[in-house]
Predict the 3D structure of the following.
Amino acid sequence: MRKRSKLRAPAAKMLGEPLIAQMAAGLKPSALSASAAAAMHERILQRIREGAPEGTFTEMPPSRFRIA
Amino acid sequence: MQSVLHAGTANAAVADPIAIPACIPAPSIALEGLVHAMACGEQAAFSSLYQQTVTQIFAIARRLLRSKEDAEEVVCDVYTYAWRRAHAYDSTRGSVMAWLSVMTRNRAVDRMRQRRATVSLDDVRHDELHKSLVADMLGPDQILAQFQSGSALHRALSTLSAQRRHLIGLAFFQGLTHEEIAAVVGMPLGTVKSHVRRALAALQGELSAPA
């Protein structure tokens, strides 16, 4: 099998996961409203329910996000 | 007035997994426990993990994609995948935040590539692709501005020459390969590889040095 050239290495390999994680952690925060966070949470739960085997993830109460 | 969450906030209260508050960074060991509980199907653990990490994960997606809608889509993908693959999380490979962060960055880059693929369907595909890459490029100062000032990473990046910081930015923010970087910046491939290798060595040296 032909060896993959290092010149074609994707950026993920170029930087390496530890550095990517460090760079990601160092990014400035972005404002996220509680309502947007709650809406994404609902979307995720919906996706999970759709893909989950029957009988799982069905008793999740509606999300209630509050800010201290 | 709408409340706003900021990255780095966390909720240490396990008793109420639906609340998002408190400015206490989630201990990595606590997040690991949540992922293990998720692997056993515990829904409350999933919600707690989401609440403790979503602001940082959203920030990564938002900074890379510069589109709120795309960032939200990527965040939803990441957490759905995290729930399904919780059993595969290996703490010896990195923290939970690193796991989620790398996943988010990679998915954001995939989404950027999808955008570029759409552009490249045009008749003048190469020109359009090149234009879209150039339009999305952050300059060396803009790259630095994406990171929290005073952080080790900000300091490390500021030690790089503007040119090398630019190349690292193209790799991190746009997920470009060496070849793509060479094409976009108009440098020989070998020169790009050399700059990137030296920039990475400098970054690793700075980040591993004691503060």
Q: What stands out?
A: The longest helix of chain B spans residues 96-119. The radius of gyration of chain B is 19 Å. Chain B touches chain A through 69 residues (CB under 8 Å).
